[in-house]
């Protein structure tokens, strides 16, 4: 399986990026292929008004590497790890721009929109977040948005790993050991139990059956 990490911190040696790399390392230890990209190397401009921005053939006129990232890496990934610092109780602007600009490729004006739509669904997703503050509610808007983003794309948000730290690499000293949590999640990325019940979902009531004997 292919796992792509999209790191959105402007710092290359970022806390959220370290957490994402730990997920990748866990996945790589199970034989999966992994890659981490830095959004600051890739995405230089926010979404504009597509009506005036699209070229005559329906493609995006923003000249950066976003299209390459989406068409060559995002679509083919089986799982995507989104890494973001907590900025003002939300995700980084870079990650928000990455999500916003997907719009240009799924809208019917884009020539290959059908193909993009087909390939954009059915992924496993993980979010890694680093923040200075530790109270749970500080990151709730990020978790809520990514949950809805995954739901819209018929994808499964299988895990959120949060590390507390401020200076570069400081999540390493977080006593809750988020780097270990991230690595562990990476090892179970495709086996991780994901459930989202409805009233009529058949279920036994036992979540973790005890092996006989
Ligand atoms: C613009 C900006 C806004 C921030 N806002 C918050 C915040 O609302 N709450 C918080 O706990 N930390 C906040 N921080 C601190 C970062 O979340 C923290 O340093 C984090 O570890 C950075 O992650 P990174 O190394 O992945 O960039 C902010 C930092 C910056 C630069």
Automatic annotation (TrEMBL):
Chain ranges of the NADPH-dependent FMN reductase-like domain: 1-128
Gene Ontology molecular functions: oxidoreductase activity
Transmembrane feature ranges: none
Record flagged with keyword Signal: no
InterPro entries referenced in this protein's UniProt entry, alphabetically: Flavoprotein-like_sf, FMN_Rdtase-like_dom, ISF_SsuE-like
Gene3D superfamilies per record: 3.40.50.360
Keywords, in A-Z order: Flavoprotein, FMN
Keyword Flavoprotein found: yes
Domain of life: Bacteria
Name of this protein: NAD(P)H dehydrogenase
Organism the protein comes from: Streptomyces antioxidans
């Amino acid at each position: 399986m292919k796992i792509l990490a999209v790191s959105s911190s402007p710092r290359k040696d970022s806390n959220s990026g370290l957490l994402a790399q730990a997920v990748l390392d866990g996945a790589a230890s199970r034989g999966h292929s992994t890659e981490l990209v830095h959004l600051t190397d890739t995405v230089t401009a926010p979404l504009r008004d597509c009506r005036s921005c699209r070229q005559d053939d329906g493609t995006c006129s923003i000249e950066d590497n976003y299209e390459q990232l989406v068409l060559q890496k995002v679509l083919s990934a089986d799982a995507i790890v989104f890494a973001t610092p907590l900025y003002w109780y939300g995700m980084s602007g870079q990650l928000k721009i990455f999500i916003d600009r997907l719009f240009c490729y799924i809208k019917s004006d884009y020539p290959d929109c059908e193909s993009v739509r087909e390939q954009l669904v059915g992924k496993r997703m993980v979010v890694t977040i680093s923040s200075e503050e530790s109270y749970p509610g500080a990151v709730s808007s990020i978790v809520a948005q990514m949950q809805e983003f995954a739901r819209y794309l018929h994808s499964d948000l299988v895990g959120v790993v949060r590390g507390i730290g401020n200076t570069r690499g400081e999540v390493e000293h977080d006593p809750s050991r988020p780097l270990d949590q991230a690595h562990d999640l990476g090892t179970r990325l495709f086996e991780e139990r994901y459930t989202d019940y409805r009233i009529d979902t058949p279920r036994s009531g036992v979540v973790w059956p005890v092996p006989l004997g």
